[in-house]
Amino acid sequence: MNFSIVDTEIQEFINENIGKDVSKLALQKNPFPEFNWTEILNQISAKTKAKDKLPTWFSTKNIIYPSKISVEQTSSEKTAFYKSTLVSGESLIDLTGGFGVDDYYLSKQINKVIHCEINEQLSEIVKHNFEKLKIENIECLSGDSLDVLQNLNTKFDWIYIDPSRRNDAKGKVFMLKDCLPNVPELLDLYFSYSQKILIKTAPILDISAGLSELKNVKTIHIVAVENEVKELLWEIHKSYNGSISIKTINLSKQTEIFDFALDENTDPIYDLPKKYLYEPNSAIMKSGGFDAICNQFKVDKLHQHSHLYTSSELIAFPGRVFAIEDRFAYNKNNMKEIFENKKFNITTRNFPETVETTRKKWKIKDGGNQYCFFTTDMNNDKIVLICTKINQ
């Protein structure tokens, strides 16, 4: 990386072309022949991606970006800030530093942070950026994380790890043992350097699979942004052997939080649709805490596998909330009379047909202000609920 890319004229050119089609720009003549044109184009592409995801970086002068893919794979500022609420103390080492977004926020809660990155060029970029961001309590070290950890031979309050989800032999992988570093294999060694470990994994990782590979898990945080699950955070304490907590967080205009104990005994109540319908947000859907919802929010389930809830009185709920306007059995006569060539927003839950199949079969147009749920009730009958959305 040529660090003179922060030259004023080049930076002005990059800023003038934010959001433009880089493939079309690539056909133009390089206005700065003494600089690598591909690198300049990469800066435009990566900075465009950072505009919404990393506003602090985007608004800071002379930031250097790695590849667009690195920016896509890094934590957003929203999820990085959430991580920072989970840690405290004097020292933390990030064994998989990457672009450094997590460390920027972790450093606001920890007095001394070590950013360890195996890619030397990326480590230099991050060091440069931290200087521009006026962050003084992060030290950037390049090298294999295990070598760095053993050479430092220091006790830390926290170890943070975001294992790489790619493997040369298997491509994308979804078991922790196939990621780099191999956390399950190295966990005991990590515990010799810190009592507390925070691990970030991809949202696709199955929670039960993760628990089968890890030990001493205290809390699993399922973090979503605008109802899209972005990451799982595994909080591990060396001496912990108690009940595991599941905490779901949906970071949106009104942050939604729901937590429960993994071994919590719950006896849900099943009932037919009442006045209101509730659909949990994506973080709760990932958590599997479908019965715990009934106890905490005093709502009834429509069916064991439908994951839709109902109540007679309106309540605040972590997900989408609807008023039920009509309900009826799913049959040919009802469908033709009510739906043909009309607009509805459709959702299927525990139903034998997909949204696409249902639309095509009954000639239902997409859109409108009404929402239609195709599902199964407690009596195993296929039913249709027509609703209007309630904004809470």
UniProtKB/TrEMBL annotation:
Ranges for domain THUMP-like: 319-389
Transmembrane region(s): none
Chain ranges of the PG-1098 ferredoxin-like domain: 276-318
Keyword Chloroplast in annotation: no
Highest taxon listed in the record's lineage: Bacteria
Listed SUPFAM superfamilies: S-adenosyl-L-methionine-dependent methyltransferases
UniProt key word Cytoplasm: no
Gene Ontology molecular function, alphabetical: methyltransferase activity
Biological processes per GO annotation: methylation
Coiled coil: none
Keyword line: Methyltransferase, Transferase
A Pfam match: Thump_like
Protein name in UniProt: Precorrin-6B methylase 2
Species of the source: Flavobacterium arsenatis
